[in-house]
């Protein structure tokens, strides 16, 4: 069965507690359950990761090169700073979808630039945690064509 890696960066472990006016009350565990349920309905599985450490995210992307049919990534603040994550994603041959819970383009100007967008096939921003589910729905036919 195909696997989609869902990667989350710094501070997303505090989802549901940190700045609920921006990020809502849904926890990362809620997102993980919703993604696993939807993936099951769509015929694939997910591996869910979160780290506050850039190198761990890079290592997980390296692992995904041999394990994953696609990556959904919300790099958090590393979106705007990490060439290392971009370089790691550039070694991954399958689809990458970038997700942001908030609309990064309506926030501080430093959040308007994303290194990850240079690699991602698509970006979903500002649709809350529903963006993760939208990413999985988008990937379903692509994954099906890779595993058929």
TrEMBL record:
The record marks 18 as: Transition state stabilizer. Keywords: Amino-acid biosynthesis, Aromatic amino acid biosynthesis, Lyase. GO terms for biological process: amino acid biosynthetic process; aromatic amino acid family biosynthetic process; chorismate biosynthetic process; quinate catabolic process. Substrate binds at residues 74, 80, 87, 101-102, 111. Catalyzes a trans-dehydration via an enolate intermediate. This is 3-dehydroquinate dehydratase. Pfam families: DHquinase_II (PF01220). Homododecamer. InterPro entries: DHquinase_II, DHquinase_II_CS, DHquinase_II_sf.
């Amino acid at each position: 069965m195909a696997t989609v890696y869902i990667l989350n960066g710094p501070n997303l472990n505090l989802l549901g507690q940190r700045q609920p006016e921006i990020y809502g009350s849904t926890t990362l565990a809620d997102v993980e359950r919703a993604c696993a349920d939807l993936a099951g309905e769509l015929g694939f599985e997910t591996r869910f990761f979160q780290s506050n450490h850039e190198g761990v995210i890079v290592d997980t992307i390296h692992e995904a090169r041999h394990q994953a049919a696609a990556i959904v990534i919300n790099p958090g603040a590393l979106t705007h700073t990490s060439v290392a994550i971009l370089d790691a994603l550039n070694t991954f041959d399958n689809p990458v979808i970038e997700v942001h819970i908030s609309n990064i383009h309506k926030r501080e100007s430093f959040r308007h630039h994303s290194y990850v967008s240079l690699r991602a096939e698509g970006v979903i921003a500002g649709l809350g945690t529903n963006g993760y589910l939208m990413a999985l729905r988008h990937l379903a036919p692509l994954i099906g064509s890779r595993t058929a």
